[in-house]
């Protein structure tokens, strides 16, 4: 019996040894089947070194073009509009007669005022004779002093009425000259507000004239930007429908910010001697501001953002490292941004954003990147 138990124990131990050996060999086979870690390869064009550079900034604002030299011509006298010789789009000169008003009514009013002047003159002459007689009677003490004072007051009143009548006659005479409506400025008729044969009143709009030789663009900038602007500074203005930008200058800067918006008005003046531009066209103004200092910069495509935090990817000692950075000034035209911290001057920074990057993954810079070991490509912005 003892020999049988001994033989059975040896058999069990042999079976356990075989099972253990099989498990170890299976685990080794699994380890051997695990693929080796891939090393990402980047070309020299995909890796940049931060450089010191000046970053010019831009201030932009937009709006419609307006013509500051715009005049609305009004009738100075009422009456029937006999002629209106210009139409919309007509070019006129300063002083050119644009329309005439029927002078018949003005002539009638003028005759009325002349008659009133004659009546007032006769009344004043009569009051003067009466006062002279009363003065002689007062000297002989035939009338009282009170009667003489009343006579003098009547004379003063008659003379004042004569002056008032003459003033009214002069007003009508001046208005009679206003039956001819002339252009106050040279320009183009933008709109007609009346037609020939229409009954117009004093101060009624007749035509609007626009001088297109100089146009303006009014916009607003933030209070933190206005200190960088000054009157006379050159401005590039892109006008809709015009391929080449137009060079203008800052004409005026508002002295105070607008309540509620904390923005300050800026007016750009645009020369338009050939009248290629028109009032109402939409325009975008761009002011270039030079940078007085050198800054540590990288391409804007190198900076990514996740959860509100800007970051870049570096290659350090053959592995990928993700670094949080703080972005400063931007130059949209050159496509570069300033890094205030997080990256040293000699670092190797990935110039574009790639998918599937892993912190600590192996990476190296090669002359030509192979398809099998490359990153998955630039990510969509």
Summarize the model shown:
The protein is α+β, with helices and mostly antiparallel strands.
Topology:
Elements: H1 2-33, E1 40-43, E2 47-48, E3 51-53, E4 57-66, E5 70-74, E6 79-84, E7 91-92, E8 97-101, H2 104-139, H3 145-177, E9 180-182, E10 187-192, E11 199-200, E12 205-210, E13 214-222, E14 234-239, E15 246-253, E16 263-271, E17 282-289, E18 295-299, E19 304-306, E20 309-316, E21 319-324, E22 326-331, E23 336-341, E24 349-350, E25 363-366
Parallel strand pairs: 1-25
Antiparallel strand pairs: 2-24, 3-18, 4-13, 4-17, 5-12, 6-8, 6-11, 7-10, 8-9, 10-12, 13-16, 14-15, 14-17, 15-16, 18-23, 19-20, 20-21, 22-23
CATH topology of the largest domain: conserved putative lor/sdh protein from methanococcus maripaludis s2 fold
Share in helix: 25-40%
Number of helices: 3
What's the Cα radius of gyration? Answer: 47 Å
The unreliable regions are none
Largest sheet: 6 strands, antiparallel, barrel
Q: Beta fraction of the residues? A: 35-45%
- Average residue-wise pLDDT: 83
CATH class of the largest domain: Mainly Beta
Query: Which structural class matches the secondary elements?
Result: alpha+beta
What does this structure look like?
- With 381 residues, this protein is of the alpha+beta class.
- It has four domains: 40-55 and 293-366, conserved putative lor/sdh protein from methanococcus maripaludis s2 fold; 60-67 and 211-289, Beta Barrel (Elongation Factor Tu (Ef-tu), domain 3); 78-101 and 179-210, RNA polymerase II/Efflux pump adaptor protein, barrel-sandwich hybrid domain (OB fold (Dihydrolipoamide Acetyltransferase, E2P)); 104-177, Orthogonal Bundle (Helix Hairpins).
- It has three helices and 25 strands.
- It has helices at 2-33, 104-139, 145-177; strands spanning 40-43, 47-48, 51-53, 57-66, 70-74, 79-84, 91-92, 97-101, 180-182, 187-192, 199-200, 205-210, 214-222, 234-239, 246-253, 263-271, 282-289, 295-299, 304-306, 309-316, 319-324, 326-331, 336-341, 349-350, 363-366.
- The strands form seven sheets. A six-stranded antiparallel β-barrel has the order 4-13-16-15-14-17. A four-stranded antiparallel beta sheet has the order 3-18-23-22, with no helix packed on it. Strands 5-12-10-7 form a four-stranded antiparallel beta sheet, with no helix packed on it.
- Strand 14 (234-239) and strand 15 form a beta hairpin.
- Helix 2 runs antiparallel to helix 3 (145-177).
- It is elongated and about 150 Å long.
């Amino acid at each position: 019996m003892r020999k049988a138990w001994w033989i059975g124990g040896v058999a069990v131990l042999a079976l356990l040894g075989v099972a253990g050996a099989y498990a170890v060999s299976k685990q080794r086979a699994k380890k051997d089947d695990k693929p080796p870690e891939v090393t990402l390869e980047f070309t020299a064009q995909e890796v940049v070194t931060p450089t010191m550079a000046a970053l010019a900034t831009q201030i932009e604002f937009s709006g419609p073009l307006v013509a500051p030299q715009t005049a609305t011509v009004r009738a100075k006298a009422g009456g029937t509009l006999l002629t209106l010789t210009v139409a919309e789009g007509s070019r006129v000169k300063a002083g050119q007669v644009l329309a005439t008003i029927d002078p018949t009514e003005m002539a009638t009013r003028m005759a009325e005022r002349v008659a009133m002047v004659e009546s007032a003159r006769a009344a004043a002459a009569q009051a003067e004779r009466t006062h002279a007689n009363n003065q002689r009677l007062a000297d002989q003490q035939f009338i009282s002093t009170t009667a003489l004072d009343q006579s003098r007051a009547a004379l003063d009143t008659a003379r004042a009425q004569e002056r008032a009548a003459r003033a009214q006659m002069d007003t009508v005479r001046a208005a009679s000259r206003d039956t001819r409506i002339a252009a106050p400025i040279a320009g183009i008729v933008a709109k007609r507000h009346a037609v020939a044969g229409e009954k117009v009143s004093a101060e009624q709009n007749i035509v609007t004239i626009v001088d297109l030789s100089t146009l303006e663009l009014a916009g607003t900038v933030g209070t933190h930007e206005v200190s960088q602007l000054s009157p006379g500074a050159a401005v590039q203005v892109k006008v809709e429908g015009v391929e080449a930008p137009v060079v203008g200058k800052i004409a005026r800067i508002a002295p105070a910010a607008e309540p509620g918006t904390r923005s300050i008005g800026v007016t750009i003046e645009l020369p338009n001697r050939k009248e290629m531009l028109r009032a109402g066209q939409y325009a975008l103004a761009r002011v270039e501001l030079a940078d007085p200092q050198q800054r540590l910069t990288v391409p804007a495509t190198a900076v990514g953002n996740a959860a509100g935090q800007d970051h870049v990817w570096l290659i350090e000692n053959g592995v990928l490292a993700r670094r949080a950075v703080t972005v400063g000034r931007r130059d949209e035209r050159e496509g570069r941004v300033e890094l205030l911290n997080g990256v040293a001057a000699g670092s190797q920074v990935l110039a574009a954003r790639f998918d599937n990057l892993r912190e600590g993954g192996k990476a190296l810079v090669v002359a030509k990147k192979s398809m099998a070991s490359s990153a998955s490509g630039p990510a969509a912005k």
